[in-house]
Write a structure and sequence with these properties.
By secondary structure, the protein is mainly α. It has a domain of 59 residues: Cytochrome Bc1 Complex, Chain D, domain 2, CATH 1.10.760.10. It is built from 5 helices and no strands. Helix 4 packs antiparallel against helix 5. The chain is elongated and about 65 Å long.
């Protein structure tokens, strides 16, 4: 009986929430990567799971750190990126967003 009463109380709240979510407008920012060999690979593979802002807001990091991050995405988050593509992504990131450069 308690479940029925609770369900009847929840339904109007959910209906109200769904109506308000329809008018919710979120800001959009288009992140632009630097031109270079491997840019398209980063755009296609990294944006499968997160925005490019996540990549760009990391700051400049050494190549070893970019290697660790890309390996982490592949091994822990199961990003479907093959070894050759991963190497090209790491090369692009370290060349264009690397601390060494």
């Amino acid at each position: 009986m308690k479940k029925i009463i609770l369900s009847l109380l929840v339904i109007p709240v959910l209906a109200f929430a769904s109506e308000n979510l329809k008018s919710l407008k979120l800001p959009f920012y288009e992140y632009k990567l630097k031109e270079g060999k491997g840019k398209e690979l980063v755009e296609v593979n990294c944006q499968m799971c997160h925005s490019l802002g996540y990549v760009l807001n990391q700051g400049k990091m050494p190549k070893k750190t970019w290697e660790h991050i890309v390996e982490h995405m592949i091994n822990d988050f199961k990003a479907p990126i093959d070894k050759k593509t991963a190497e090209e992504i790491i090369e692009y990131l370290s060349k264009n967003y690397g601390k060494d450069n």
